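Lesson 9: reading folded outputs for more than one chain in a single document. The general rule is that every protein is listed as its sequence immediately followed by its structure tokens, and records are never interleaved. Here is the first one.
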Amino acid sequence: MKWICQSLLALLAATTSFTAHAQQPMKWPGGKKAAIVLTYDDALASQLDVAIPQLRKFKLTGTFFLTGNITEGQMLQWRKAADDGMELANHSLYHPCSERVYPNNRQYYSENYDVNTMIKEVGMMNKLLFGIDGKRQRTYAFPCSQSLVGGVDYTPALQQSGLIKYARSGGDSTAIIIRFDTLQLYKIPSWPVNYQPTGERLIDFATRTLEENGLGIFMFHGVGGDYIITPGEAHEQLLAWLAAHSQDVWVATFQEVMDYVTHAPKK
């Protein structure tokens, strides 16, 4: 899984930019000037061991896109995280990816899926998540930031299914959302954080988001361990910066922020 995700993130960073330019700035709640969403993919042990304790330390929340690859003991830990305000979100049951980045997992090649199979898998993951936190509304992150299965984009079917409220995609370090009138709610961009970033680099993205009066969404994987690692110290430096700038920066879960965005008044 490690090099699979790294290969796709490198491809996305090289080819895709989602930064838009606003006509009217967003009016964020409480007089704040920007919003940050901290998201974490793949239900990794380091997220339970490092990221969540750090979030608790600074009284911040994040969104965790889980797959079905979790143990019963981890389910109890994820339940506690949900009780603490973390959002448990859907990342599909088996995380299918293109055969270009899945060399030895033919059964999980997205090319071998069809739309109906993918939608059923998302629905099954929703049921697993319901068993953990008892919630029914879910957000979603496309595995490997890919929306094609069998050569067909399953985004329209996902939207029509009613299983998912909003879906996060990929992007790069310029993926600061500024224009909200044209934002696609099932292709919401984010910055896939990789290559052992420093705390300064993470804070730079948050600072630019604040300067743009925008929305910045981080996509983390491992924190202090696992793969596509963000060092624990760098992650903590970002959280400390966000806590210190809480008067200006709203940090909330993906669903909370997107619920606000879809109903917010503009300046």
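And here is the second record, again sequence then tokens.
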Amino acid sequence: MNSTQSSGSAGERRLQQLLGTTDQAGTFYDRQVQPRLTPQMADFIGRQTMAFLSTADAAGACDVTFRAGPPGFVTVLDDRTLTYPEYRGNGVLASAGNITENPHIGLLFVDFTHDHIGLHVNGTARLHRDEDQRRVHPDLPVDTAPGRRPELWVHITVEEAYVHCSKHIPHLEPAPRPRPRAERPKDADYFALRSSLLPAQCEGVGTSTPTGPLPGRT
């Protein structure tokens, strides 16, 4: 951005004044925060296989999630536009649902393996049906999830993009995914309340399944 007055939120600027970092932040805004993707940023996005995604509903309730695919699954259409596919998944469509209420979106790309650097991209998003997006952009990838076809594309207009410094980014080595442990619960049950975590059963019941309501529940 050319003017620090137009960069950052009012809350950022109040805290910068309180903590004495106004000049430091101004230097960051002037040197690092871009209103569009630079060629280096576009190239970086094209190499990434994962992204962290943040959305919020109309009331401001936030949701953060993770997207992954082959390099280029987030496609740079031009220096102001990104797009990525949305699949049915668990059918909840939390991120897409938020976008229908509140178009603001944030993405974080992190290179954990080579240059240990991150890139923030913030903007506004719209949802396009797969056939409509491909009609306008026929070169979109078709194999981001083999055997599956996107239902929607998230079409993002970039408002700002800036670096995430490397200082605390860990180094991760790519490796084949190991076979799941036999005792690993299924995804749908992984964080569910398990019998070993239930309150102790009444004396005389033993290890049989309780037939009445669980303690504390009706």
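What the second record shows: Residues 149 and 190 are 27 Å apart (CA to CA).
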